[in-house]
Structures are given as C-alpha cells and as structure tokens.
C-alpha cells in the first residue's frame, strides 16, 4: 500500500521540477467507459498519472496543482442519493482527497471559471497528452481550444517532469511491484500446470485472467497466449493445444495500487522440447540471462539490447541459420528478421510505462537517440539506466513466414541469412522469455518469486 503522504511528496517534487514554469497542472481522472449502454460499464481503470499524484479517487474528479503556490486541490461532486440507492454508501470527494493529503475540495462546476481565470491572467495551463477521446474533449472544453490545438499544446515541461519522477521507483513502489509480480508468476504457473494436449487456448487464458482478478485488479494487458507465437502480440485464443507445438504465453497482472507485472514463457505442448525447439530456446534463454547479468546503473540499455541481438546472431550461426560476423549482422539489422522488437521497456503503473506520454520522452534523451534500423528502432527504452528503473528483459526468436518471404524476394542480407535452411522453420512459431527487473546500486534484481524458465524447469512443471 502506498502511504498517503507519498502523494503530497510527489506533488511537491513535481512543483520543484517545474518551478520555472508557473501556472496550473491539470490532471483529469478517467471517465467510466460504457460497454453497450451508459450504465453498463467496463471494469474501471484510473489514469496512471492522475493516480500517481492523487491516489485512486474515482471518475469525474479533476486534480489541480498550482505551481505558483503550495495549493493542491480537487474538483468533483459527491454521489447523490439516486446513485447510492444502486451503489451503496460511497465516500465523499473530501474523504477521497484526505487519502492523498489534499484539503481543498471544490464542486466540479467551479472548475471552468477557475481555469478560465488562470488563462485570462496570462498563466499557463499544463496538461498531458490525452489517449482517450472523452478526456480530449474535456480538455478542449476546459481550455477553450479546438481538438487539434489541444494535441499541439500539451506541456512538454509536464511530460518531462512526470517521466523523471515515475521512472525512478521508490522503495514502497518496489514492494508493490514485487507483490504483483508474484501474482504474474502464479498466473503463469497455473497455465503451465494445465498445459495439456487437447486443451483450448481460451480455457488457459481464462484461468490466467481469473488468477489476476483473484489477487489483484485484473490483467495489466490483454493476455497473449497462442501457438502462433511468431505474431508478437497475438490477441487470439482460438487454438487447441497440439502435440509438438510451442505455446507462447505473455501476460501480467495489475495491483489495486496500480502497478503492473509482465512475464513471458514459451512452453512445449506435450511436455518436451524437440531438439530443434531446444536449440532455439537455449539461444533465447542465454540472451535473457546474459542481459540480466549486464543490467546495472549507468549502462546504456540500448547497448544491452545490441548485446542480446549479438547472442541471438551467434546462436543462429551455430545452428546454421545465419552466417558471417555476428556484430556486423546486428549493426546492419540482419538479426531483425528473427527479433524484430526491442529487448525491453519501462514497467510501472503502465505495462509500457508512460507510453501515452511518448516513447521518446520515456526511453530516450539527448545522449541516446532511437535507432532508425528496422527492429532496433522498436526498442522502447534505450537510455542510460538509473537506480530504481524497472525494466523488462524479453529477447525472442521468431519465424514469421510473411516477413521471410519479403526478405527473400528483396534479397535482403543474403550473406548473413541461410534462407535455404530457414525453409525448415517456417512453421516453427516463436520463442520469447521475459522477466521484470529493478536496477539496484550494484546491478539488478529480478522482481517477484522465481518463475521456471530453464529447459528442465519448464519440462518438469509441465509433466
């Protein structure tokens, strides 16, 4: 549980980072999202940045931080008796504000005039990019701008300050992350123990989601569970487990406090890896383990990504799928046929932490820029690591028939890729192994309880 004074401390630190900006920071809570009519809604999910500074609260509340004073306030209305008849007694907005040490509460109807007077006085209104259309419309109405103007006038100062704060996890945040990583481990172990020939992917995905709801706030992203693991984010669970196939399982849970886990394991249906599967699996496992060994403060994560790709290249050369010099193959992008994504991403209150604020703000800076090479360009976090950063480590090898055909037709990297032997792997699928780590003073630590990942460990839990 995050302490109530943590929220006031975060707002104070934000005010310090933006002391030269002046004006108001306005953070909108997420609204309810109807499934098919207004009162039948999806499970509520609060906006992460709002939650970071103002606790869970609820929908219909706006948080305001005055950068020119010590004033923090919320605007919102209490539920009426008509609401309470259906929902039961509910805390007041003042009760919720007390939970995050805000003592100035105003009715929502006062917000328009408050913001308008701020704008008329020449003070700046800072807001973050809106990823939901209802939030975008509310900001437009509140600031008197058109939709496109709202998009153009987001506050880069606020984005950079929020990223700086949220990327470094406090000790109490790490406690929350460890807890929800344990739930993620349990989700995977539940699937592993039920991974039997003839079982449906849908059943396994449902088991996992049930665990996430039993021990947290549900899944941190839609469950990826498929024997077509060559599709990186395969959302479909319409297969029946078939002997000899590989089942790629990428999933995590979200805690009540808002923190996320994200693990991937790849399982041999039937309980045993074939020799061909084992060879590829061991390459990915080595890339995972070596990357974790390298992780420490003050290292460019982009370099760790390149090293993982080099391990992939060396492994594929050893089994005859690639040729030539491994470092050169990585530099030119030849390995991206097999690993067209980055090594990992920031993790926290979002599974791709703060991606709504812009990946380049989160994962890059003036010292480390994003690569323009296919595959490497997909690395979401590349800059220098700091103590308290939480990152995923998720190398993979995939055999994507459509991409292979394009590269064959274009004659790409013929000196590096053995296309003739590659034909034997067209129906292989994909393998990814992912863990969550926190950067510590002397290196890193894998969050949560251990989750089986060596060949023997995986095969033993499947039996």
What does this structure look like?
The model has no long low-confidence stretch (mean pLDDT 97). With 463 residues, the chain is α+β, with helices and mostly antiparallel strands. Strand 14 (435-439) and strand 15 form a beta hairpin. Strands 6-5-4-1-7 form a 5-stranded mixed β-sheet. A 3-stranded antiparallel β-sheet has the order 8-9-10. It folds into 2 domains: 4-166, Creatine Amidinohydrolase, Chain A, domain 1; 171-462, Alpha-Beta Complex (Creatine Amidinohydrolase), CATH 3.90.230.10. 39% of the residues lie in helices and 13% in strands. The two termini are 37 Å apart. Helix 1 (4-17) crosses helix 8, helix 9 runs antiparallel to helix 10 (201-214) and helix 12 (301-318) crosses helix 13. It has helices at 4-17, 48-54, 81-87, 93-98, 111-120, 133-143, 147-152, 156-167, 171-193, 201-214, 275-294, 301-318, 326-332, 359-363, 401-410, 419-422, 455-462, and strands spanning 24-28, 34-37, 40-41, 62-66, 72-75, 104-106, 125-126, 224-226, 246-251, 263-268, 390-393, 396-398, 430-432, 435-439, 444-446.
């Amino acid at each position: 549980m995050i302490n109530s004074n943590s929220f006031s401390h975060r707002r104070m630190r934000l005010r310090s980072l933006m002391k030269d900006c002046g004006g108001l920071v306005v953070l909108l809570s997420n609204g309810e999202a109807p499934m098919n009519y207004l009162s039948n809604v999806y499970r509520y999910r609060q906006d992460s940045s709002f939650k970071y500074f103002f606790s869970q609260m609820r929908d219909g509340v706006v948080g305001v931080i005055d950068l020119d004073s010590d004033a923090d306030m919320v605007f919102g209305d209490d539920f009426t008796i008509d609401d309470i008849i259906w929902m039961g007694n509910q805390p007041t907005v003042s009760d919720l504000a007390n939970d995050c040490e805000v003592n100035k509460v105003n009715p929502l109807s006062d917000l328009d005039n408050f913001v308008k007077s701020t704008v008329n006085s020449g003070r700046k209104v800072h807001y973050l990019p809106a990823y939901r259309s209802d939030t975008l419309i509310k900001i437009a109405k509140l600031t008197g701008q058109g939709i496109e103007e709202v998009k153009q006038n987001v506050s880069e100062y606020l984005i950079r300050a929020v990223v700086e704060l949220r990327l470094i996890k406090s000790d109490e945040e790490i406690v929350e992350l460890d807890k929800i990583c344990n739930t993620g481990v349990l989700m995977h172990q539940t699937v592993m123990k039920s991974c039997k020939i003839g079982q449906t992917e849908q059943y396994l995905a449902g088991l996992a989601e049930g665990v996430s709801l039993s021990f947290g706030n549900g899944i941190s992203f839609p469950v990826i569970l498929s024997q077509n693991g060559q599709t990186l984010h395969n959302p479909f669970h319409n297969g029946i487990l078939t002997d000899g196939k590989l089942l790629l399982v990428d999933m995590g849970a979200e805690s009540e406090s808002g923190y996320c886990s994200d693990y991937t394991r790849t399982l041999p249906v039937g309980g045993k890896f074939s020799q061909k599967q084992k060879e590829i699996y061991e390459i990915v496992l080595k890339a995972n383990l070596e990357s974790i060994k390298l992780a420490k403060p003050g290292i460019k994560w982009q370099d760790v990504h390149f090293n993982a790709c080099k391990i992939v290249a060396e492994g594929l050369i050893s089994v005859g799928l690639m040729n030539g010099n491994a470092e050169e193959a990585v530099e030119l992008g030849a390995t991206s046929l097999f690993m067209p994504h980055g090594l990992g991403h920031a993790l926290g209150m979002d599974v791709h932490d703060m991606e709504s604020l812009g990946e380049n703000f989160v994962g890059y800076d003036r010292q480390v820029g994003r690569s323009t090479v296919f595959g490497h360009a997909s690395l979401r976090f590349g800059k220098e690591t700091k103590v308290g950063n939480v990152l995923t480590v998720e190398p993979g090898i995939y055999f994507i028939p459509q991409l292979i055909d394009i590269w064959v037709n274009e004659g790409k990297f013929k000196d590096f890729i053995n296309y003739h032997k590659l034909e034997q792997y067209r129906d292989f699928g994909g393998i990814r192994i992912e863990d969550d780590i926190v950067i510590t003073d002397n290196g890193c630590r894998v969050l949560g309880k251990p989750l089986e990942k060596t060949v023997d460990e995986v095969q033993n839990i499947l039996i």
